[in-house]
Amino acid sequence: MVVVWNARTGVPVRTIFEAHPGGCIDLDMSPDAMYVCTMGAGEVQSLAVWDWTVERDDPLAISEVTAKDVQHCVRFRRDDVHEIISNGQVRTIFWSWSDEVNQDDDEGGGGARGALKFYSPAISAKEFLTPVGNFTQSVFIPGSTQAVTATEDGDLVLWDQVLLPALHARPTDRCAIKLLKLHDGQAISVVAVFDKFLVTAASDGFVRFYDFKFRLLAWYEDLDVGPITRLTFTSPRAPLDKMGIESEVRVPNFIVASSNGKIALVNAAVFELFTKEERRAELLVQGLESPISAMVAHPSAPQVFVTTEGPPSGAGGTLRILDYETQAWLRHKVIEKRRPTCLTLNPNGQEVVIGCSDGSLMILATADLDLIQRASQVEGEATLVDMSPDGMHIAMADSELCVGIYRRERNVLESGKEVPWLYLGRYRSHHAPIVGLQFVDDKDAGIIRLLSLAQDRVLVEYDLANSFAATGIVVRSAVTVEQTAVPAALLLLPPGSHPGEDPMRPLVVSANNEYKLKILDVLGLSGVHDERPLPSQDSHCVQTVLGPTYGTCALNSLRMLPADAASSPDSRYCLYTTPEKVVGLIKLPLDGNPNRSAETLSSSPLISVHLI
Q1: 136 close to 83: Cβ distance less than 8 angstroms
Q2: Cα torsion at 219, 220, 221, 224 (round to 10°)?
Q3: What are φ and ψ of residue 570, in 5° steps?
Q4: C-beta neighbour count of 590 within 10 angstroms
Q5: Phi, psi of 137 (to 5 degrees)
Q6: Are 145 and 94 contacting, i.e. CB atoms less than 8 angstroms apart?
């Protein structure tokens, strides 16, 4: 899908649905803002030119990319919108198109009007006596027949027409004539033309301005934003006054984005300043430099705890605390040698618990993020972690299909160090991935229950009171809750939220891959590893209702929205997500009524983490 927006109002003015099978990998708008060219991202790539100002469902021109190189950049020529350049890692393609009406194709109305022609000049290291790096971006040089393609080695490949073209080439075809070294060994991530400048930005964080004869005019090397991935311009500098010098270089202000998650404004005038500190960019947005692995909200303060993965080349990660009212990052802690995978908070907000990829558990104080204890008794990757309502137990599920339990109890390690948490052990209670881990505060019985649900269709309850480090974990019951469907999520319902049931009896909801929600009575669970058919087992299913049916996949997570002090049980909502894009709300009680749920589409194609 391609959306054209009004930049001033933020309102979409035209939407092109299904521009390419598999989506678009890149696009560009012509300098006169009349046309849009798009490069497909599917297995079979194609280039299309659209007249977005006309209500027309098909492109003006379209052609399949036959080069065996995935094209990832496409640009119009500023002097002539009927010329386009694209490039992949090793091939650059020059395109030309015509918007003249083809009478044969247009007799029925709405037929293809133009034709796309292309050629791709070959290039080899022998031509320049040096290896040529992978291509990144390409652009035409205004006022000439030249074009340039940037490389990961910091070079520009210069394309131009020659007097003696290659065999079978047309006189107007371009070929590679020169290799220009602009950034020493650093990948040029951006090459663009603005006003009368050719601008490059690279992985070294440098931005350089050249004229169209490749003479260096201005350089910005102290921006302190990290490897630059995107660059855009604000507007041309204001004209000089009568006392100004006409030959003065008037570089425009610009905005850069980096792989460190930073977006910064650069005032072009800092080029004339003397110190490094004065020549730094003005930070606009501090984002995240790597994917989010887990999030959790503080129970009482306006804070969100976020863990991100480390660089792809190594392990590690970072824990950050965000104040979502002021949009400011408060504190952060680098986690070395292990990647955080899951996260939870003590209900009193004083401790944060992180499960890691190596199976270790880290417990930190939320006030200063100091490490309280690190436990490393598990080898499998931590997948889920939860803390009991009274803050006395921590449960962790891992990739080896086990559930481990820690109890708040002073003990001394073999090294002689005293720690506040005692490892009780772990139990391999499932033979398929665990999808739910839930503590239940049973006020009527005066105990805390722990449940786990897995794709093996078994709901397991653990006996916390009789589990000890000396004897191990004790399982109270294990009940099969599905016959054919596969469980996907587990949720504890608030007391009194289901009509006709005792508000003191804890109920949980199991969601499955058949779009159903099964309400289960925790007190009805009995029978350790009960293999009897469901009708023969003791009653534990209160009701089965239809769940949300939006999207191509059933929901895979459920969370309760916090309740207001004056809210009644029948005005509560739970949040759900599906693996692909859909985020929605369900109003309690759960009765299968489709009118009691609503959904929206997220911008991300895949949803991995959400919080309330």
Answers
A1: no
A2: -170
A3: -85, 10
A4: 24
A5: -145, 160
A6: no
Among 116-125, 469-478, 514-523, the minimum mean pLDDT is found in 116-125
Distance (Å) of CA 406 to CA 35, 422, 525: 62, 5, 24
B/e letters for 307-323, b = 16+ CB within 10 Å, e = fewer, are bbbbeeeeebbbbbbbe
The secondary element (H helix, E strand) that includes residue 387 is: strand 382-387
For 163: left if phi > 0, alpha if psi spans -120 to 50, otherwise beta; the answer is alpha
Which two three-digit tokens encode residue 507? 């109920």
Tell me the β-bridge partners of 264.
Answer: 256, 283
> What's the CA gap between 202 and 184, in Å, rounded?
10
Q: What is the DSSP letter of 570?
A: G
SS3 content of the chain, % helix, strand, coil (to 5): 5, 45, 50
d(CA 327, CA 284) in angstroms, rounded, equals 12
Token digits for 118?
């292309």
Q: What is the CB neighbour count within 10 angstroms for residue 511?
A: 26
Closest CA relative to residue 82, chosen from 35, 45, 137, 138: 35
132 vs 135: CA distance, rounded Å: 9
Record the tokens describing residue 539, joined without a space: 């009653």
346, 392, 461 from 465: Cα distances, Å = 20, 12, 12
| Paired strand residues for 383 | none
Express each pLDDT in 394-452 by its tens digit. Answer: 999 999 999 999 999 998 887 888 999 999 999 999 999 999 999 999 888 888 999 99
Name which of 572, 575, 580, 516 is nearest 549 in CA terms: 516
Beta bridge mates, 171: none
Output the six-digit token pair for 366. Answer: 């939320």
Q: How far is CA 34 from the centre of its chain?
A: 32
Question: In one letter, which amino acid is 260?
Answer: N
Picking from 142, 143, 16, 154, the residue whose alpha carbon sits closest to that of residue 75 is 142
Q: Which residue has the tokens 């791709």?
A: 120
Q: Which tokens belong to 391?
A: 């803050």
* CA nearest neighbour of 372 among 388, 394, 357: 394
| Contacts (Cβ under 8 Å, ≥6 apart) of 259 | 226, 227, 229, 289
Residues 580-605 have a mean pLDDT of: 82
**pLDDT one-digit tens code per residue, 162-190:** 776 665 667 678 889 999 999 988 999 99
Residues 6 or more apart whose CB falls under 8 angstroms from that of 576 comprise: 489, 511, 547, 548, 555, 557, 558, 559, 583, 584, 585, 586
* pLDDT of the residue at 105: 45
Strand order in the sheet with 46-51: 24-29, 35-40, 46-51, 61-64
Cβ proximity of 481 and 459 under 8 Å: yes
Residue 395 DSSP SS3: strand
Surface-to-core class of residue 269, CB atoms within 10 Å of its CB (0-12 exposed, 13-18 middle, 19+ buried): exposed
Domains observed in the chain: 2-181 (2.130.10.10), 291-428 (2.130.10.10)
